[in-house]
Design goal:
The chain has about 240 residues and is mainly alpha-helical. It has two domains: about 110 residues, no CATH class; about 90 residues.
């Protein structure tokens, strides 16, 4: 696989993550049965992907992204599934489709326009994609995975709004950074610090379910962050070896 192909695949994935997890509003996400909102969302993902790729004369990028994203989102919407497994299948389907588009549908000579000004553009885009996958995508998956447990506990509404979501995003961002700068031992200190801070909230014997809920969510979040951080690092090394 040539360097140009890797460049386009990385850009396509980054465009997808930006469109799906940064630009997509809650209204779009929860009302995709309305064809107008679905088309608006798919058009947004297509536009961002086209912009990130920067191959202005390649109509295949726009057609490929629009068609596959519309089909996959349409199937998920009609299926009505919204659990962690459905989420992974949905995102896996998108990433597989983008890999096929970048590997076989886009001409091999296609080069992102932005590389004319930023020779390290592909690495920068890969870092953005890895960060989004680690921080934003991980947050959505963990939330869906622990949702069944959350229904069995009764938590007092005395915390800051969206504090748990922000804590999770910050911890995954720190893990991502620690792995990329070759200081993975710092993750151990992060685990210890969070254990002291969070488990101090659980003092009563009847709060065992809440403690277990916290442990499950924390381990899922840390596991996701470590996996995506090391995957990003491996891809960066691969790009380095191929001259990207």
């Amino acid at each position: 696989m040539g360097q140009d192909t890797w460049d386009i695949m990385v850009c396509l994935i980054a465009g997808h993550l930006l469109g799906d997890f940064v630009l997509q509003t809650d209204r779009m996400a929860h009302n995709k049965r309305k064809i107008g909102l679905l088309l608006l969302h798919v058009s947004g993902v297509t536009a961002v992907s086209y912009l990130v790729c920067g191959v202005w004369l390649s109509w295949r990028i726009a057609v490929g992204v629009f068609a596959t994203h519309l089909i996959i989102d349409g199937i998920k919407t009609l299926a009505g599934k919204d659990g962690p497994r459905a989420f992974l299948f949905d995102q896996g389907g998108h990433l597989a489709a983008l890999a096929l588009i970048g590997g076989f549908w886009i001409p091999g000579a296609a080069v992102p326009y932005w590389q004319n000004f930023l020779p390290f553009y592909t690495k920068m885009v890969l870092l953005v994609a890895g960060g989004l996958l680690c921080i934003r995508v991980g947050g959505f998956w963990v939330a869906k995975a622990v949702a069944p447990f959350q229904k069995t506990i009764h938590r007092a509404e005395d915390s800051l709004p969206n504090a748990g979501r922000l804590i999770g995003q910050l911890e995954r961002a720190l893990i991502f950074l620690l792995v990329l700068v070759n200081v993975p031992q710092g993750v151990g200190f992060l685990v210890a610090a969070k254990s002291v801070l969070r488990f101090g909230e659980v003092r009563e014997p009847n709060q065992r379910r809440e403690a277990e809920y916290i442990i499950i969510g924390t381990l899922m979040s840390f596991g996701w962050a470590l996996a995506t951080a090391y995957a990003t690092k491996a891809l960066l090394n691969l790009l380095q070896m191929t001259g990207g």
